[in-house]
Design brief:
Length: 393
Amino acid sequence: MNMPTQMNVPIARTSLTEAEIQSVLGPLRSGWLVQGPKVREFEEKWSAFTGAKHSIAVTSCTTALHLSLAALGLQPGDEVIVPAFTWIATANVVQHLGATVVFCDIDLATFNIDVNELKQKITPKTKAIIPVHLFGLAADMTAINQIAKQHGLWVVEDAACGFGSRYHGQHVGTLGDTGCFSFHPRKAITTGEGGMITTQDDALAEKLRRLRDHGAAMSDLQRHMGSRPYLLADHPDAGYNQRMTDLQAALGAAQMKRAADIIAERQRLAKIYDEAFTGLPWLKSPAHIDGLEHGYQSYPCLFQPEPITAKSVTRINQARNAWMDALQQVGISTRPATHAVHMLTFYREKYGLKPEDFPKAYAANDCSISLPLFHGMTEAEQAFVIEQVCARK
Ligand SMILES: Cc1ncc(COP(=O)(O)O)c(C=O)c1O
């Protein structure tokens, strides 16, 4: 087969069937647009799929994380431990509640929080840990939960990328106090914007439902179904408006019908990459850990043409960027896997941090590369990416 020399392969492409697109018309025609029957259906489907006792739909993963910490009772001055390599939202929600972000370095082999360093970050002010299941690979939840139990800390799982990620058989998001998922278009299931909180705790679920809806003790759906039209809800809390629309929920619920297929397809594509790149010493594919099922929200690799050290990081970063440019020129979109939050202006200045303070996060920031992986990627698209990657001089 003659390979093309130029294609257009995006980093991700949204996959929606005609039936899923049509599903949005249901709420539009019914007139029930917010926090109605479709939201309830999406929540039920999410619980059935993940095994969570409760699922609470919200407007994004960021609001899911924020609401979780608010519901658990995080106070100004409290400390929350957050991996230094994650999306900025994981840290921002701590900041928004007036608490202090305590960064922890990662394990470069998995891109997830380093549990040995985590222990050293605990102080009398620590209240919570936010482990992130980055790119779809579960963090070391046994160790994290053990540390949390020992010190009486809450565990809020950032499962933004965690759809389809399992930890020894259990879906992520069901292992901590709450789990927080994202439905942003870069994720495997998307509602445009949107998020879901999962929890096994009845009282916490009730509080989360209240807080997302202005603190109301009774939802619109409950009032609508009830028999006393004069009843107004009481508001035991000063809550927020983080309600999902039924248009979004209809789209989410429709995609849940092919949830298993979506995950299987991503895992199939990842396996093809894994096999194609086995012989490349300069490109480290995502880790395989016994007992962990990767959901492959993305396919994050480590670019390592030489061992990554404090001295070589800058040189490797320049080579990686040049390679990313070269791939872009033949039409292949790539991205750094994510950013090191301690290196971003707000956190660097507020906490007086240097890149070297978290050397693994710094290395991941400068030496990682995510390759295109999305549902519906064609054989020709993936073959072209593989050929171009393997052809790197
Ligand atoms: C690890 C992580 N946490 C949180 C978020 C925030 O998700 P959302 O955009 O749904 O607010 C993202 C988004 O990409 C993420 O990757």
